[in-house]
Amino acid sequence: MPRFTHRTAFALVWLVLSPLLGRLLRASVRVPHHEAAARAEAAKFRGVSYHKQRGIFMARLCVCGRPAYIGCFQSAQQAAEAYDQEVRRMYPDATPDHQFRRKNWLNFASEEEAAYDESPEQARTRAMSTYGAVQRKEARSFELLKEALDASVYSGNYELMRLTGSSKADALFKLRGSSKAGLPIQIKAATSLWKQARTYTFKNLLGYDGMLVVLVALDGAHFWAAAGEELKFDNMRITIGCESDNERRVESIGALLVACFKNIKKFPHVSVEEAELQCSRTCRVEVAAHRQLMKLFNCVNWSLTCPQQHLSTVDSLLEVGVGGPVVRLQEKASHLNRRGKYEVRMSKCGGSLGRLAYAENDFDLLVALVLHKDKLQGIFLLPSSELVQQGLVAKRPSLLILYPPWWLPKRSFYKEKNAWQLDFFIDLRTWQGSTELPAQVKMRLERRSGNRVVSKIADWGFDGKAVNVQICDLIKENRHLAPLALARIEERLRKDSPSPVHLALSLLEMLVKNCGLIICQAINADLAETLVSLVKKRESWRYGFGRNLHKTGLSEWLPQGIAIGEDQRAQWRQATQKVLEILQLSVDAFMLHEGTMRPVFNAYKRLRQEGYQFPRSSTGVAANLCLVNGAESSPAYLAGATPSADTPAPTSAPAPRPARPSAEAEDEEIARMIGARADASERVEQLVQALEQGRDFDPQELDELITLVEDISEVLRAMGVEDEDGRPKAPPPSSVPPGAIGVRNVPAARVISESPEGLLIDDTGGASQFEPEESSDRSPSRPSASPEDLGDPLYDAPGSAAGNALLGGRAKKRASRGWSQWAESMRSMAAGGSRTRRLGDGVPRSAYADLGEAGTPLFQ
Q1: Are residues 133 and 233 in the same domain?
Q2: Does a structural domain hold residue 290?
Q3: What is the tens place of the pLDDT at every residue in 234-254?
């Protein structure tokens, strides 16, 4: 008998099992191969999966707020095409981030869609719109909870207090007006996932033991509540009408809060200080500093509150006094670091862009607190405008080193460089945290922060009218403050945003109306040039570039201030109109003071010569001229301009309108204007004659003289002295005796007759013989325009050259043509036009020598 060995046993097992193993291997290779191939095919596309049991491909698009299922298809490519179609339907061209979504989600993107490249600024904007919505949801949930409490019967005895954003609890429910501890509340908010508004998902529910967790449905006004220790899962989904809804639904939120408030055993009470200190170590330092700052402001009856939305550039809101302006604060706290310096970081979180510099309008006042062992030693109250001047805001992220009086730099250079900080510092080392401030500290706080810092902020947009009136009163009391105020206004007028420009122009208009000549004489050439640049801003290449960027549709993706939309376009147009109104008002009100207001008049003439249309009323002068303090001595005021029905009411008490000047004074003023016009027109003809003879002359002087003639003529026409053609008008029958013809009686030049051939003026006081001019040998008669460019050297002295020339031996002139046509012909001749008539041989006068050089006042 053969011997049984291991080899024999192995051979027998192999012979028996090999057919079975082969069959199993063939089956395992054949069946999973098809499934693996299908899964591999589905993995090539986004939003496509393989259904094993049904053997089909499914398309899904998971977007918050809608069902994910799209449909089932026989091939993966069909499912991918259906997925792409749904993506394009969900994110059309009007969607702000449709380019980003299409590039990252589509399976078969076009060349244009695939070539899209998102910039870091666009990525930050998209992230801020997502995560900023979370902060807005928290603020909205607190508002809904507070509204529900106010509507209950318990609102008279209890109140809901919002805590700082760094605190673990969101709010504290306590007795109204009590400083005792209260019930800590954690608020969670959610919106419905489906269009039926039935399902809500709340997240991050663990870790709130000892607190009441209130769940708020933002779009359904539903409330659910539970104790923090009762929640066993981090996420919870509640469906309206199901057990999850009925178990924790709250019908009367006020009754629930009161019941939990009284259950001290289950919900231990905590004070505001204890609740705010339930945060990280860094946040505890900020909370301690904020608490001391609040106590400091309470000593002077100022209110410091937290904004509704946290994690923004505004840490708190300061109400100065009762009903005073509200100032947005950015709080910084600093201990002495290892390098022996007090430092605060002047930057904010920019997401994917890293640290960014604060923008100019992020806050109004930087409050930098100097601490020693968490005790307040002093504060710096730094306005944002001052930080902009120092280059710490609106430029680049920086580090601000604080230098309190006891820690000044050793080197004199750095000491002088940072000396500006001491103007905004308040030393609090003598204050022990009590409710009463030392007299010296309280005085410095009220003076430095109240009068100096807050006024700098409030006049630019919070309580602007009230503070602007105070500025007007200060300047009228001390005219030396006018240049300082105008320098601050000029800084605001140079901003790229229209909002501060409008506020600055409003203040400038109030100063012109209330302070009058004080402000107009203090306007320097730089401010006048800034006003001109504002008028011409819409002609600049930067403005055109911004408008083109807006028209391309990329304004939403660009940083703020680059593209100029329709709203900003309208604001800049209003600013242009406001500048023209201010210049027109200043020139009309003080046309007798051109010599001391040269920058204003030069700016006005420059804009007018370039064709800009100034706003005027039906009478030819500014409609609100009577609102300007000191305008009653202006010849334009004699035109009788009264405010129209749509003229806005003055923001402060306007100067009372005095009685109309007497007839003698008015006639004397008219005579002086007529004489000045004659002198200027004679000088114009001399300059044009010099041009024809090839002699040198100043074209600027010629243009100013022609403009002067036009302005005087328009004033005379507005006063009713002359008509459109430069002919004298007859006075009303009630005020003129029968037979009197012409203008009002002039002291030494009297109109004695008028005929179709001309007008005869008798300057001897008696009758004269009529001598008409020869029209064939005369230039166009110099007869009209506006009162803008008249200056005080024309009329300051009663015995001026213009007046003496009129009262002395005036030659006979006629007004067969209008002064406007005469001015046009003079300008055309100066520009090189052909001259068909001989210049008039007017009587020469020694006053022409007083016309002066170009750019100097006329007839000094």
Answers
A1: yes
A2: yes
A3: 899 998 888 888 889 998 999
